[in-house]
Amino acid sequence: MFLVTVGLNHKTAPVEIREKLAFTESQLPEALQTLKQYPAIDGCVLLSTCNRTEIYAACTDMTQGLKSIKTFLMECLHEEECEIDNFLYIHTLYDCVHHLFRVASGLDSMILGETQILGQVRQAYQIASAAESTNKIINTLFHKAIAVGKRVRTETEIDKNAVSISYAAVELARQLFGTLEGKAILIIGAGKMSELTAKHLVANGVTSVLVSNRSYDKAVELAEKFGGKAVKFDQLVECLIQADIVISATAARHAIILPEIVQKVMQTRQYRPIFLIDIAVPRDIDPEVATIKGVTLFDIDDLQNVVDRNLQERKKEAVKAQKIVDEEIKEFFSWLNTQFVVPTIVALKQFGEEIKQRELEKAFNKLGDLTERERNIIQALAHSIVNSILHRPIVNLKAYAQTSHGHLYTEILQNLFDLQIEGQRIKPGKPMAAEEVEELV
User: Fold this and answer.
1) What is the mean pLDDT of residues 121-134?
2) CATH 3.40.50.720 region(s) of the chain?
3) Which segment of 61-70, 107-116, 306-315, 402-411 scores lowest on mean pLDDT?
4) Measured at the alpha carbon of residue 248, what is the angle toward residues 292 and 233, in degrees to the nearest 5?
5) Of the residues 127, 203, 241, 258, which has the fewest C-beta atoms closer than 10 A?
6) Is residue 192 marked as binding?
7) Is residue 49 marked as binding?
8) Are 165 and 247 in contact (CB under 8 A)?
9) What confidence score (pLDDT) does residue 285 get?
10) Which residues form the Tetrapyrrole biosynthesis glutamyl-tRNA reductase dimerisation domain (predicted)?
11) CA–CA gap between residue 296 and residue 24 (Å, rounded)
12) What stretch of H or E contains 7?
């Protein structure tokens, strides 16, 4: 059984290819059932997000399995002349497991340490499990991957420290106010960055949203998204008095919030703290505003500096996360290899025993009457020869079982001796207990 990953993402494929190979949640069960009918595919999971589509499969034959997956993807594309290989990346055996563990840990995401991907991995596996497209190897692989993702987020801070402008604004606001529960925000300008920042603030407890824009209709449209209120642009001063957090991102060519305006506003507020986030270029807020009592002002460069510092912190945590991934990979392959090594050793010993008994029977028939002592000596000799021949392969196979390629050596041995392993196509079930493995090996 061979583990493989075939996928594409924003780095390898343009959007016109990615969108054709994106699967909705409702489409996944049928797609998985279709894929599992292809030659050599014994179990599979399909992970489809906005940035990636990946197939994880356990194959009885690696070459045929990869061919089947590519054929499946080509049929999904409905473009016979498309050179799909140009957009795909392929991971096999150890690299397949390493890749999935990194994905679940947020180490392979566009945003290092993102938390959403772990839930997406879990959902992809649950859908595959419900569609009965998995097998024992895939089940254990994804159980382990999800556990690795949880462990990374528990034992490191890779998902802490905002690494986007909008999240950085939320983090800074929380630091200033302690909590965002019950706070009010004023959005000046109805652009995408303002909307995204407001979305994150509302998700973190902000309850009142005011939107002001030179185009009142656009202000109304954005305010409705947050259950807020649109206000005329000439009511800006009154809104500044009410707001705790101000997000400004207009297309103005000069500052629209000046020190003298904010000074009057703060006097009226009795210098109650206000957080101004200026993400416009050119800037909407005169930098002198930051000198006024009670005012905290961050512009786009300030926020980017915060993001850069936080990204460096996440990179430090990523080193810790990678160590966890490496530890867990070793444990997974230790389990995986025993799934092949134990039955292979049993089959190899049985193979040797059958040869011994068959050849002894031939020899005894030719030798005629023998004393019991003579028969015992011949039997002992045959037993010793067979054991001596098989001893080194078995010892080496046990040693290889502790490496990342143990299962590969196992399959080679099975092919060399033409061993027939009962239940070689591993079906759903619990992994063999450690004590059971030790007893057999």
Assistant:
1) 94
2) 165-293
3) 402-411
4) 100
5) 203
6) yes
7) yes
8) no
9) 94
10) 320-419
11) 43
12) strand 2-9
Contact between residue 168 and residue 162 where contact means Cβ atoms under 8 Å apart: yes
Residues in Cβ contact with 90 at an 8 Å cutoff, skipping those fewer than 6 apart: 4, 5, 6, 66
State the pTM of this model. Answer: 0.66
Q: Is 129 assigned to a binding site?
A: no
CA separation (Å) from 352 to 154, 423, 437?
Answer: 50, 20, 21
The answer to whether 332 and 143 are in contact (CB under 8 A) is no
Q: Which of 50, 76, 82, 239 is catalytic?
A: 50
Contact status, residue 287 vs residue 279, Cβ threshold 8 Å? no
- Considering the four listed CATH numbers 3.30.460.30, 3.40.190.10, 1.10.150.20, 3.30.930.10, the one that applies to the domain covering 2-155 is 3.30.460.30
Q: CA 34: distance to chain centroid?
A: 24
- Architecture of the domain defined by 165-293: 3-Layer(aba) Sandwich (3.40)
164 annotated ligand binder: no
Torsions phi, psi of 54, nearest 5? -135, 140
Asked about 50 being catalytic, the answer comes back as yes
* Residues forming CATH 3.30.460.30 domain(s) in the chain: 2-155
